[in-house]
Amino acid sequence: MLQDCDFLVELAQNLELCINCDLAVILDRASEELGIVRSKRRRNLKNLELMLGEVSTRVFQAGGIDKPLVTKRRSRMCVGIRASHRSLLPNGVILSVSSTGSTYFMEPEEAVELNNMEVKLSSSERDEEQAVLSSLTSEIALSKLKIEHLLDRILEMDFAFARASHAHWIDGACPAFSSERCNNLAVDIEGIHHPLLLERSLKRLPDIVRLKSQISPYSDLKKDPSEIGPAFPVPIDIKIEHGKRVVVISGPNTGGKTASMKTLGLASVMFKAGMYLAAQNTPRLPWFDLILADIGDAQHDIVNVLHKYFNKALY
């Protein structure tokens, strides 16, 4: 399934080199210039925070604030100070004021140069990140068709694994096309369970797709009959001869007529999708170009003296 695929190993390695996919961040090693800019920015920011911490502590010790406060306003680092004590920061720049007007957020004079450098380095970092992303995007664009082809094959493989997992989970049987040469039955299914009702009686299908141990994740999936929980649905046999155009199911209410029809409908859809069926032996069905259903009509709803479903079928 994947034999003709180009796995684009070099592109994948380049992406892993530049981007941490788990955190969705561009790494320092993505480019030499980006690493240099980020290193400078970290040093500058450390000096800025250290200096502002000292200023805020002095303001606190002078009674200018309840506790030391270093924050950011208008993309610039600053300290909080009571409006009445703003003189503690001569030549400081007011960046913002609290909603009550009692607290100013001021940029000390000695922080201006470091803040300017932070703004400059931040802008340079964004430019370098954009350059890295543009370069990677160009590489990906050149491999667009190969990537699409690979994704299609991976989806096919994932679907195949999903079908196999489900088949193992329900202990399913592989269905086959019915043929008049084999027997006179167009539909020949023995001991089939309604797939949705059966799920309630099975242990949850494991999410894991890869195991370190050799123990199968599908072992012991079925509940022990003695366990408390929904009982296994009653299996049914469905046998319809070739050439039959209409099959009528009759019986008392809650006798399983609707469940039986749904079982056949779901089995037909699952068969077309390449799925196994929760049945015995080898279920045989024909190919249905179209599978239609009209379920849930009120029994008392009469149209033109006919039951609603029959009225729809007739007209």
Automatic annotation (TrEMBL):
MF GO annotations: ATP binding; ATP-dependent DNA damage sensor activity; endonuclease activity; mismatched DNA binding
GO cellular component, one term: plastid
Domain of life: Eukaryota
One BP annotation, GO: mismatch repair
Subcellular location: Plastid
Protein name according to UniProt: DNA mismatch repair proteins mutS family domain-containing protein
Protein source organism: Cuscuta campestris
